[in-house]
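Table S2 (continued). Query chain:
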Amino acid sequence: MSDASIALEDATTRKVAAPLRSSFRSKLDLVVLLAPMALLMLAVFDLPLLNTAYWSIDDSKTGTLTTRFYSDFVQSNVYSHVIWRTLVVALEVTIVTVLLGYPLAYWTTRLRPRLRMLVLGIVVMTFWVSILVRTYAWIVILGNGGLVNKTLLSLGLTTRPVEFLYNEIGILIGMANVLLPFLVLPLYAAMIKVDGRLMQVAETLGASRTRIFWQIFFPQTLQALAASAILIFILSLGFYITPAVLGGGRFPLISNMMDLLINRFAQWEIAAVISVVLMTITLSLYAVYQWLRERGQA
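Corresponding output:
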């Protein structure tokens, strides 16, 4: 083989190998860059979850692994009743939030730009106020001597104060108030993407506004509505402050029951079992939420 052929082969080899080395170096730099964050996520989030899952099958008295705590959980009517109540309350809160949030988001899209920004600003401002402060504010509003009951009594609509607090009604009102922005903002973002020319064409063809809304506008926002509703349901499952304050301990949900199991009765194993069950439900719903969200963006 001549010197020219050898030189040409070496040059070709270097030309092919250079992109491979560059690609490997880029991947290595990316791994080095992400490694500290990955280790932090592992230490702060993943290890506690794995530890909780281990507690749910670890018998501290015998030092062996067991499924006895899961059996106790399944056979107990108390735990299943509280979990079922939590799921029902989460569903009710989701329905109330959807019934209030969808019209609000739709109404916001119909406003003039300046007024629209004002309404969105008011919605976003709720994130600046502590949930604890907002929850206690409902006690002032809904109490026996609160603004709502005074108005009802002065109008003669009732002869005695209505019990809004320390029951399911108060919890629903408080949780819906906290979660409403989580539905309104994603829905608004989906609604402003709807092509207005479709409604104009339908109106030109003689369709009524009601028909245009239900057959053209609503179907295009349905996926965003479903994804936002699932997100509201997920967030409702783990609420602690609002049920504890507005429920007054008379209407405990999962988070309140776990507080009792850990801080008062020191039953860490059962609390870990409930955590694993709740985490499984949440991850399943989150997978559905992500699927709907990706379909909406496609």
